[in-house]
Amino acid sequence: MIYSIARKEFVSTLRDRRFLVLSALVLALLLVATLVGRRSYRTLQQERALAQATVNDQFHHQPARHPHRVAHYGSFAFRPKAGLSLLDSGVDSFTGTAVYLEAHQQNSVNFSQAQQSGSLLRFGEMTVAFVLQLLVPLLIIFLCFGAFSEERETGTLKLLLSQGITLRQVAWGKIRGYSQAVALVVVPALAVAAALLFTGAEFATGPDLLARLVLFVVGYAVYFFLFVVGSVVVSAWQADSRTALVTLLGLWMLGCIILPKATANLGATLYPTTTKAQMDAEVHEEAQKGINGHDPQDQRTAALKASLLKKYGVDSEEKLPVSVGGIVMGESEAYSSRVYQQHFAALNATYERQNAISLWAGLLNPYQAIRPLSMGLAGADFAHYVHFQQAAETYRYQLVQRLNSLQAGMGYGDKERRLDAATWQSIPTFTYQPPTLAWALSRLLLPVVALLLWAAGLSWLGLRLIGKTSIT
Amino acid sequence: MNRFSLFRLLLSYEWQHFRAARGLVVLTGLLLATGLYGIYYGTTEIERQRQHLAALPELTRHNIDELKGKFPGDADAGDIGYYHTTYAVHHPDAWAALSLGQRDLNPYYVKLRLLGLQGQLYAADNVNPVKSLSGNFDLAFVLVYLLPLLVIALSFNLLSSEREQGILPLLLAQPVSPTLLVGAKLAFRLALVLGLAWLLSAIGMLWAGVPLDGRVGLWLSMTTLYTLFWFGVALVVTALQRNSAVNAVTLVGAWLLLVVLVPSLLNLWVAAARPVPQGLELTIRQREEIHAGWDRPKTQTMNRFFALYPKWRDTATIRERFVWRWYYAFQHLGDQSVQPLAAAYTSGLQERYNLVEQLNLLSPAINTQTSLNALAGTDLPTHLHFQQSARAYHDALRAFYYPFLFKQVAFTHADYAREPTHTFTSQPELLTAYGGLRKLLLSVAVIVAAGLLLLRSRAIQPR
Questions:
Q1: Do the Cβ atoms of A115 and B132 come within 8 Å?
Q2: What domain of life is recorded for the organism (chain A) (predicted)?
């Protein structure tokens, strides 16, 4: 019986012209979003790969220079786009793309796309995730709002129940039928997206990417299922189709438009961040005078020099086999990097606290559960961004310390000398290894749990409520 | 009964109807609450930015104290230029609190040293990307994004609910023309929504403490026209005389199209039609130029510099291994060499903005948002003006330091106070705002005319 109800809903949905028009629109948008996503992925990726190759090449082909000059010349780290980011670009448009890596300071990641697109971007970015998160739920609402109320209005619900079937069975039949109709729209689109993803030669098709894609699809399947069940429940619960539709649209707006913005802004109000100017000043202060306000830089330098003289058993700097300048540079880099790291860790912790509010809101609002899950699987969320930042910083530190030790090895009077151009070619360039799926998933537990709780809760509680709904 | 008292009677019934419909009262209250939150958020955000800006002179003072300690007597101005930081600051206009625009994305201050400008001009401030992704919750967002939804909720069943409940034949049997009926219903809802929009605007203006100039009228006219536009859409849908569910779907579809789809598709189109040269190339090239300065013969660098600044041509020839005036000369030459790239970057952004300006007739939502941002001075052109003014400030700083460097005058403690300072306050782009208003007027005229024509051409079906 459930099967025949499902079949009836599925068939009558396909005959409904409104549904056909809407799903054609959604399909077209999905296709546009996929193609655009692929194109922008390609151009961005090429641009960044080219820029990275250029700076690496420039680094290797420097003339003979003093190592500290090279430390200031520095290098750049460009953030490669993650494989699935063509489906969900997440925070990518709002994070910069390049970090300048140089001695003594950690620079910000500059040139975000958001700064280049004016206020239009603020209305939303046309990506596959945008269509899946916002528009498909609307399609589902339009499809299902009359599931019970229309039957009740036309009097067919009574007839159905007189066949000896329970309300709950009717509901399941409808959910099944509608789910099939939704799948008919979404599955081909995602199949095309997957095909595009795996046919591009530039994508490293690994098991990691495939697993991410599978989870991506499963996540959205649960999300859509939630909307189908929710719409059917609301349709049964409300007196007539009109109020059911208005209630559902109201919930969509609250969940997909108002709450995400409100929680993000609330987070920023509750946990304010310091400006970069303030942070730079504090770092400078601490690096100069010592973290606890003791032991200023010149005292540290003097102590270091004394210990060097003692270690090599000589009485003057000229007789040392190493350059005091280089060793002091290395020490002070270690010191200032530690200070920087503390401040960046504090800043990121503040961001995490701000974001946690939105993340916990996922328990109230499925949209705020699927969004972080989708971004995280696509490798375009905040955690992935921080991972890149830290990789760039690790490289910067190693690069600068390597150059400092080269300087130290040049001995007394190093400032007047330069190292051969071949030296620079022996220094490895920056390569970025994006994190694995397991790494990403461990940070996505909350949204996963929230989605599953929603699915289970709605199916159980919602359908219990349906059993008590009035028939006439 | 004359038409006027009939109209008043209809209005009073609508009011009773509205009060009885608990859902609508809740919805209106909700919009009022979100509007108040929007005002609260916008004003606190701008207040936070003001506090951040107010803290910058203190940082500069602190930096100067440190330098005075480091160089107790007369100093080489080159050292000061290298270690001394000042700030170019972009103060918000009071209106910015109501329409934050891009002020959260574009840095509102630039930290400057005497070094090459291009390496410093684009430094981003600390921003949480997740927050930027979600966007601002200011009054403009509530008015542009959410207010149409209230219009839709109030008017999707304008005649259809009467028809569906079977009251419409009874109503039309009374001596009341259908046009008057629709007119009274729309007028009541219009008064309600406009009242709400004006109330929120007035609260916002008082809260943000805006100056009471012509922009008050401009803001209110823009809000009013935008509200009228959405009632025009509701009128068209009512005139089509479908059932409530179809009306709701159509209206939400129109909202989705104009507020969500057109902007995001337009964004794609504009990005493709007006590619902006990436800033990356600029920074890479500038670094290359500046660092090559160390390896070039000093006379070559100085001659290139003197060609730009003949004033300093007669200064002493450089024989030292390192001297500051040579260092700052090649820093400046690095800026000079990327000048075309920097100009292309800026003009590319401006062209993108202009294209959106031309195309925003397609969606009154974009038009209203850009106009409100223009009025508040929070959009891209203002940011570009700020960058321009930061550039001029950097020029002024160089002009201040060059005599010390080239005439080899010692920098004394008294000279810190003579250093130029910078301030820039957003200016509204009134021309853009007036243009937006004209376009909005056009949209309203078209949609209302279409609605009236439709209403006239089809007799109202009682069932």
A1: no
A2: Bacteria
Whether the predicted pLDDT of B415 surpasses 90 = yes
Question: Which two structure tokens, joined as six digits, stand for A151?
Answer: 């039957």
Cα–Cα distance, A55 to B280 (Å, whole number): 11
Distance CA A37, CA A194 (A): 12
Q: Please name the residue that has the structure tokens 């009013």.
A: B224
* Alpha helix (H) residue ranges in B309-408: 324-337, 339-359, 364-376, 380-406
- CB distance B133 to B434 below 8 Å: no
DSSP, collapsed to helix, strand or coil, labels residue A100 as strand
**Chain A residues 305-344 within an 8 A CB cutoff of chain B:** none
For A186-245, the three-class secondary structure string (H helix, E strand, C coil) is HHHHHHHHHHHHHHCCCCCCCHHHHHHHHHHHHHHHHHHHHHHHHHHHHHHHCCCHHHHH
Residue (of B399, B307, B390, B372) closest to B100 by Cα position: B372
Residues of B in contact with A97 (CB under 8 A): 280
Strands of B424-425's sheet, edge to edge? B109-112, B86-91, B424-425
Q: How far apart are CA B239 and CA B223, in angstroms?
A: 24
**Lookup result for tokens 């089509």:** B240
If phi > 0 it is left, if psi is from -120 to 50 it is alpha, else beta; for residue B428 that is beta
- CA dist B106 and B92 (Å) reads 12
The answer for A 217-256 residues in CB contact with B (under 8 A) is 241-243, 245-246, 249-250, 253
Give the closest residue to B100 by CA, choosing from B49, B53, B138, B135. B138
Reported residue count of chain A is 472
Please give the Cα distance from B171 to B462 (Å, whole number): 9
pLDDT tens-digit profile of B42-52? 999 999 999 99
Nearest to A79 by CA among A396, A314, A448, A385: A385
In B168-213, which residue ranges form alpha helices assigned H by DSSP?
A: 168-173, 178-208
CB A126 within 8 A of CB B142: no
Pairing of strands B109-112, B86-91: antiparallel
Going by their DSSP bridges, the two strands A105-110 and A98-102 should be labelled as: antiparallel
Name B87's bridge partners.
B111
Query: Which tokens in the block code for residue B94?
Result: 């009071």
Cα of A313 to nearest chain B Cα, Å:
33
Query: Which phi and psi angles does B112 have, rounded to 5°?
Result: -125, 140
Q: Are the C-beta atoms of A21 and A189 separated by less than 8 Å?
A: no
Q: How far apart are CA B447 and CA A305, in angstroms?
A: 81
What sign does the dihedral B240-B245-B247-B249 (CA atoms) show? negative
Mean pLDDT by 10 residues, chain A (472 residues): 79 78 85 85 86 91 90 89 86 85 78 75 86 92 84 80 82 89 87 77 70 92 94 86 84 91 92 91 84 66 84 83 85 88 93 95 95 94 93 93 90 81 90 91 94 91 76 65
Sequence letter at residue B406: F
| Spatial contact of B188 and B283, defined as CB atoms under 8 Å apart | no
Cα–Cα distance, A406 to A53 (Å, whole number): 24
DSSP string, B261-279: IHHHHHHHHHHHHSPPPPH
Q: Which two tokens stand for residue B230?
A: 């959405």
Residue A119 to residue B134, Cβ atoms within 8 A: no
Say yes or no for a CB contact (<8 Å) between A277 and B263.
Answer: no
Q: Identify the three-state secondary structure at position B107.
A: coil
From CA A194, how far away is CA A188, in angstroms rounded?
Answer: 10
**Type of residue found at B444:** V
Question: Between A240 and B143, where is the model more confident?
Answer: B143
State both tokens at A340: 């920087």
Place of tokens 């786009």: A81
Q: Which neighbouring-strand residues pair with A77? A: A99
* A196 contacts: CB under 8 Å, gap ≥ 6: A34, A35, A38, A86
How many CA atoms, within 13 angstroms, populate the side-chain half-sphere of residue A358?
33
SS3 label, residue A418: coil
